[in-house]
Amino acid sequence: MALVDKTSIDEAGFRMSEATAGDFFALLKPRVMSLVVFTAFVGLVAAPVTINPLLAVIAILAIAIGAGASGALNMWYDADIDAVMTRTASRPIPSGRIQPHEALSFGLVLSVLSVMTLGVLVNWLAATLLAFTIFFYAVVYTMWLKRSTPQNIVIGGAAGAIPPVIGWAAATGSVSLESIILFLIIFLWTPPHFWALALFKSEDYGRAGIPMMPNVAGHAPTRRQIFAYALVLAPVGVLPWLLGYTTPFYGVAALLLGVGFVWYAWKVLGMADDDRAMKPAKALFAYSLLYLFAIFAAYLADCVVERALAMGGA
User: Fold this and answer.
1) Taking the model in full, what pTM does it have?
2) What is the total count of domains within the chain?
3) d(C-alpha 128, C-alpha 239), whole Å
4) Residue 203 and residue 30: Cα distance in Å, rounded?
5) C-alpha dihedral sign at 187, 193, 198, 204
6) pLDDT for the residue 16
7) 154: domain range?
8) Is the dihedral of CA 2, 24, 116, 33 positive or negative?
9) Is residue 299 a part of any domain in this protein?
């Protein structure tokens, strides 16, 4: 299975490009970054302290820059496989709009800037967690796990799950059980989300030589694992209410969202092996994006309303 030669890309990468600001913005993976920023913001707001608004803005901005830096480093290293996958071939590096060495420099500079800004202006626990997240995503996941094991997204999902913990740490200077539960929601959400994508993009991943679960274990075992993760995710999503961190508003919302996730996963479980339309997998993938946004939006709304009521009754 032929891949684009990384060495040739890197050698060619020392030609200067005429990239636009939009091309560099695309390196930040803005859609992924928006989810990271949102979940980090929820972690910051949910923390039981009042942070200076300016420091809150600085913290979220630093986390956003760190997330973008991770995306840039990921695109730099994965330029060879991005070039042979239909959904990534138009990215800035494989399309030739940005040279690899430019993406690497861009990612490294943003990494240092984001961590130092968060450490100096907010606190060093949050900065350390951000530095670990960048390292884990760019080195542990991108350079090692992604190309070596079908459990890549399971272990690597920890990087995408840390942002609410960083937000909490930025506000409090500590980590709590509540922030860890927010981490667990994203961590357990990640495998079924990406395996649903891998089901209907298995040929793409196969062409690139990435050992995603459907390509290694087969579609049927992948569908069973998706359903198993959904069964665990649904009750974990309700935990914040069961442990008294939120009101019944969040609890009911999380319960309904979890039931929906299980239902979509059940439809995937019942797919036929020769189902080329892959409609249940595509539906689960779309719903999973809605689920993550909605459950964190419900958490945020619950915190804001509860505090407003508390202040009104004071």
Assistant:
1) 0.92
2) 2
3) 27
4) 25
5) negative
6) 56
7) 20-174
8) negative
9) yes
Among residues 111, 94, 87, 106, which one has the least CA distance to residue 24? 106
Evaluate whether 113 touches 162 at the Cβ level (below 8 Å).
no
Q: What is the 3-class SS of 224-292, one letter each residue?
A: HHHHHHHHHHHHHHHHHHHCCCCCHHHHHHHHHHHHHHHHHHHHHHCCCCCCCCCHHHHHHHHHHHHHH
Q: How far is CA 8 from CA 13, 100, 192, 296, in A?
A: 8, 11, 35, 43
pLDDT in tens, 155-181: 999 999 999 999 999 999 999 999 999
Pick from 158, 101, 153: nearest CA to 134 = 158
- Residue type present at position 208: A
Q: Measuring CA to CA, which residue among 261, 289, 307, 285 is closest to residue 39?
A: 289
Rounded CA separation 228/217 (Å)? 15
Which of 129, 147, 174 finishes a domain? 174
pLDDT of residue 9: 46
Same-domain status, 158 and 184: no
Q: Which residue, of 174, 198, 217, is where some domain finishes?
A: 174
Query: CATH number of the domain that 240 lies in?
Result: 1.20.120
pLDDT of 272: 81
Question: How far apart, in whole angstroms, are the C-alpha atoms of residue 314 and residue 21?
Answer: 49
* Residue 157 and residue 187 in one domain: no
